[in-house]
Every structure is written in C-alpha cells, then in structure tokens.
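Structure, all two chains, one model.
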Amino acid sequence: MIDDRKKMSCAAFQAQLPELIGSGADAASHPHIQSCELCRALLADLETIAEAARQLLPIVEPPDELWEHIESAIKKESSGAGPDLTEPVPST
Amino acid sequence: MPRSPFPAPTPEGPSSGLDAAAPGSATPVRRIAFAPAASPDPSEADALARAQAGDPHAFAHLYSLHKRRIYSLCLRMVGNIAEAEDLTQEAFLQLHRKISTFRGDSAFSTWLHRLAINVVLMQLRKKGLSLISLDEAMEPVPNEGPGRSFGAPDLALSGTIDRLALERAVADLPAGYRLIFILHDVEGYEHNEIASMLDCSIGNSKSQLHKARLRLRDALRLSSRKEAQP
C-alpha cells in the first residue's frame, strides 16, 4: 500500500509543519521527509535554530543603581502613594 | 501535555535562578533530555517568609537572588536596555505589592518569572506593539514573508549556528515573532501557556513560532552567505 503522504507536495507538507512540530509529533519520521531532501534540510535547520535558542542571550547583570530606584519607589509608595493593584498576578 | 521534539530550556531551579540552563543533549532522533529542577534554596525560603512579613532586608535579598534572571528576561523580550530596566523595576515593585499573595503552590521563581512576563506583556499592550505585530505576523507579506523551501535547492545551515548571528537575527524579528520565539524556544513555555498569556489561539502560537523560526533561518542563511563572500 502506497502512503499518500509520501506523494504530498512540499507546499502541502510545509503547510502542516507548524502543527506537526507544535503538537510534539516526530516530524522527522513523516513519509514526505523520508523522500524529500529539501524538506529534510528545512526541518533540520528549524531544529538547529530551536536548539541554539537554548543558549541564546546569556544572563545579564542589571545596573547597580536599579536597586536604588526600586528601593526609592517602594519607599515612596509606602509613604503615601497607594499601590496599583490593577496589575495581573500570576496564579500560585 | 505533548513534548515537542524541538527543545525547550529546563525551567530554572528555584535556588538562585541566576544561571542559564545548560544545553540538553540531543539523541539521534533529537529528543531532548530534561534536567531535574534544583532543590529550593533554604535562604530564599527564609527570605521569602520574612519579605512576606514586611522585612525590607529580606526583600532586598530576594532582589539580589532574582535580579539577573528577571532583567535578562525583560531585555530579551523588549530588546532595549532602558526599557528592560524600567520593566525590571516595575516587576519588582509589583512583587513588593503582591508578595503576600504568593501561596507557594508553585516555585517562587516560576511565579516571579510569570509576574515579570505579565508586566512586560502589559507594557507591550499599552504600546500597542504586541497585538499589532501579532496580527501582522499572521498576514503573509509579499516578498518578505518567511521563506519557503520548495522550488529551488537551498543552502542549509551547517548544523551549528553562530550565537551572535542568532542574537542579531532574533533582535531583528518583528515584535510579535520575537515575543513568541523568546517565550517558547528560549524561556520554555508551552503553546497553551503562550496562548493564554497572549490571548490568542494555540494554533496561532504554533504558526507564529514556525514563522519566526523560518525568518531566523532566512536571516542566518543570508548572514552565512555574506560571511562566505570574499
């Protein structure tokens, strides 16, 4: 039995790719990938980018004076200006 | 919850939260091993309890434990130092106001991280940036949209990516694409969480992440072509 997904065009396969990748499916095992060098290269590149993202943008030290600004703002709020309670709070 | 074969960073351990997660190792099918979360830092737990009781020194200690992580997050999301400083300040002000509401159902670092993201998203919404760019991101731009790969042979990335080139490419992404790429691929949020944060559909989140990666691929290939030129 011939798998119709093998005969899928690159356009059709790539249109499915966001959902295929986003759903956690193993896109590399898709029949189209087995037979299409172009889409195989695309998938490999996307995986490389996603892997590289993990090492992206290292942790950065904020300027020392930032704490002074925060401390000053806290004191100002505590001394009269009421807190803004309209901001969202994440559920714990 | 399905785990994508595309890697997401290990959530930060609640101990210090100051170090970037170590890269995971890919298996032959590129499945990623996730490291276990670190144990809570006793000094953080103590500082948290004291800060919740109003101790300003304890709050300062919490700041020192989490300032780098939160500042870096803000910097990634907005790509601007001055704005990142303002947003970090606002995040810790929010923390000061809301710290008594933290009940400990999740790790404090996770809660604070989410609080900071909410602060950034609120700011982006105030500026009209995210919603506009999210909408824009859904519309294909003629001759400028993310590259497709059918038709002609393409130069594939070599399997390794220059970090600086990637940082530049991410900084050049439209705000909507950058937001989703940072939240998913760098910060490790799942699509359902992103959809909830950004008030969009899960399919929209997946689609935009894909387009962001395609744009990055185009930018990186262009960059490597330029480098290869004599």
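Residues 29-55 of chain A form one domain.
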